[in-house]
Amino acid sequence: MENNMNMQGGLAPRGTARRLGKLIAVSSLKVEIFLEDTNVGIRDLVYAQAEDRIYQFEVAEINGSVASAICFGMTNGLRRGMDVYWLSEGIRVAYDQAILGHVFNSYGQTIDGTQLEQVNTRSIYERNLSMDEIEIDGDILWTGIKVLDFFAPMRKGFKMGLLGGAGVGKTVLIKELIHNVYQGLGSNSVFVGVGERSREGRDLYDEMVEADLLDKISMAFGQMGDNAMSRSRAMYTGLTLAEYLRDEKKQDVLLFIDNIYRMVQANAEISTELARMPIDNGYSPALLTEISEVEERINSTADGSITSFQAIFIPADDINDGAVHAISQHLDGQVVLDRKVAEKGLYPAINVFATQSRIIDPEILGQRHFHLVEEALRCLSRYEELEQIVAVLGIDELSQEDHDTFFRARKLRNYFSQPMYVAEQYTGIPGQFVAIGDVLDDVEAILDGRLDDVDEGDFTYIGAYLKGLH
Amino acid sequence: MNSTIDTVLEQKIADIKKGANAFATGHVRLVREYILEVTGLEGAAYFERVTVGDKAEGYIDAIRQDCVLVALTRVTGKVHIGDQVVATGREYTVQYSPNSLGHVIDLSGMDRLVGKRMDELKELPLETAPIPIMDRTTVNRPLLTGITGIDLMYPIGRGQRQLIIGDKKTGKTQITLDTICNQAGANVLCIYVAVGKTKKEIKDIYSQLLARGAMVYTVIVAAFNDDPAPVLRNTPYAALSIARYYLEQRYDVLVAIDDLKRHADVCRELALLMGKTPGRDAYPPDIFYSHSRMLELGCQHKNGGSITILPICETKGGDITDYISTNIISITDGQIVLSAKNFEKGQKPAINYGLSVSRLGGAVQSPAMKKAGPPLRRELLAYLEQREVFELANADEMGENLRRTMRRGAKILQMLCQPKFAGRTPDQMLAAASQIQQGERE
Question: Is the ipTM of this complex over 0.85?
Answer without folding.
Answer: yes
